[in-house]
Amino acid sequence: RKRQAEVDIVRLRKELSSTKSCMASLRLPGRKTCSKFV
């Protein structure tokens, strides 16, 4: 069984990577795919 801390770290890492990809897509013109991060 994984410890809760390890599960939280994995989840936060996934959220961070998705946020980074969203911010990268926001730099491109005409992209409105990640409006929740604006």
Features:
38 residues; mainly alpha; 1 helix
Molecular structure report:
Helix content is 61%, strand content 0%. The chain has 38 residues and is mainly alpha-helical. It has one domain. It is rod-shaped. The mean pLDDT is 76.
The helix/strand series, from N terminus to C terminus, equals H
Termini separation comes to: 37 Å
Counted by DSSP, the helix tally is 1
Roughly how much helix do the residues carry, as a percent range? 55-70%
Q: Which structural class best describes the helix and strand composition?
A: mainly alpha
Average pLDDT taken over every residue: 76
Rg, please?
14 Å
Quick overview:
The chain is an all-alpha fold and 38 residues long. It is built from one helix and no strands. It has one domain.
What is the topological layout?
Elements (H helix, E strand, L loop, with lengths): L3 H23 L12
